[in-house]
Amino acid sequence: MLDLTAVKTAAIVGGGIAGWFSALMLRRVLGADVNVTLIDTPGGGAGDIGVSAHVNLVDGLRRNKIPVDEFVRETSAVYKLGVVYEGWRGDDRNDRYYRLFCSAGSRELSWRQNGFCPLLSARIAAGLDLHSWIPGFETIARNAPQKDIPALLRKADLVASYHFDGRRAANYFRKAALARGVKYRTSRVNALELDERGYVRALRITGDSLGVDFVIDASGMARIGIGNTFRAPWRSFSDHLLADRVIPFHWRTSGNPALLTHAVSMNAGWTWLAPQIDRIGAGYVFSSGHIDEPSAIAEIATRFGQAMTPMPMLRFEPGHFETAWVNNVVALGLASGAVEPLEATSMGQLLEQLRNLERIFLGTGGIIGHQTIERFNRANAQCWAGIRDFLRMHYDCQRRDTAFWRDAATAQLSESYAEMRACLQRRTPRFLDIEAYCGSGWQSLFQVVDWILAAASLGITTAAAARDELSRLPPEMRDDVEAYLDGQRRAVVERRPSSAVRYEIVAA
Questions:
Q1: Which domain holds residue 201?
Q2: Beta pairing, strands 96-100 & 82-86
Q3: Which of 90, 173, 258, 434 could share a disulfide with 275, CB 3.0–4.6 Å?
Q4: CA distances from 54 to 80, 268, 349, 436 (A)
Q5: Is the full-model pTM beyond 0.85?
């Protein structure tokens, strides 16, 4: 049992977004008399990287009493309404498919029959696109200014997240946490001191020692807690996902920021483009087994027609620790695991970890049984498995023109994704399919509509499979589907957003 009812000091190791978000949660959930201290390495914290956030960001802000409007103002955040994938389905770099952030209120999603969405299946069966049915797509297509988006969100079947500067966001969260009484120390944490039970009793920092009762490890890739101290087993995804390097960079821009994150395919991976007010935050995510750093930098300039100054390259192994919570230490964010930032997975997982940690703190009154900790670890691993399989699905695409894309397409499938894909080749994704990726109160980062949009766009779920699915509906329901399709065919208007790479670049 972990008894936090008498906790005196809770520490967060590491700054950045993960550390300061964690500090805000602890300060809010623990009693006012508890000392909440964040310790960050000198020169540490978030890098100057453009962030494309998951849709659970807004919930995370609201739970921590962060006014969304204030966050937007202080961090120069701009709306993100989805992701567009460019050049993933073949040799045509201008080919695109979309994953927009759909709400459950549209008729295409609200009609569910025997676990599937007949109207979306009808679009797949008829060869119609999977984006123009959303009323807000026209606004995205014309790249509307930021001031128009609140009105759009009130009437369209869309939800929003944000693009923002990682350093500005971390500084904003730090300011908010300090104002609420979180203490801040700049020092290197050299080791965690354990008692005879294996619980951390103190942090050994440069020239001092800080007694602690509970620790959140937000040390990023340093992984001082679960990794270096407890030596938890590592579950690698490298057999399934090949990307293991990132070169971040940015460009100055002008004009309306695009309303989508752009995931642009490259020779050995892909580049994200996260629009901001006056610049694009970007990064080339690639496999070191298929390209080296100098060649990757050269490819960026060639692909986008603009030289840039790269930031230091980041290295990672895709995967996660099998246990993120050991005794009185919990690893969150990159300290618990890492994958390529496709679909904003890292921040999304961090916020889901924090939500469930808070839920356990409050739901147990601070008296936490080890079985609860074990369930947290199992659910965390399930969530990581869902991330792994959803990302792996994106490489089941038609592009085969380079060694990376051929190898990515033939990379090993996890047992769960192999079974999932076999089902998706026969029918559309169902709600029951994603239940395996969440448990013990956790929420899947990717909903069934996300799987549908990707599986159908990539050709995993075919028109024939969707037609077969629809054929099992009662005749009166098939009539409703045909009436819907007739209306859609009459109303079809080609709508295409502006190109992901035709930004007005002011300076590198």
A1: 2-101+159-240+317-461
A2: antiparallel
A3: 258
A4: 9, 25, 9, 21
A5: yes
